[in-house]
Amino acid sequence: MVTAGSQQIEGKPLVLLQVNCRSILSKISEFGNLVDTYNPDVIIGTESWLREEIKNNEVFGDDYTSFRRDMCP
Question: What's the pTM?
Answer without folding.
Answer: 0.71
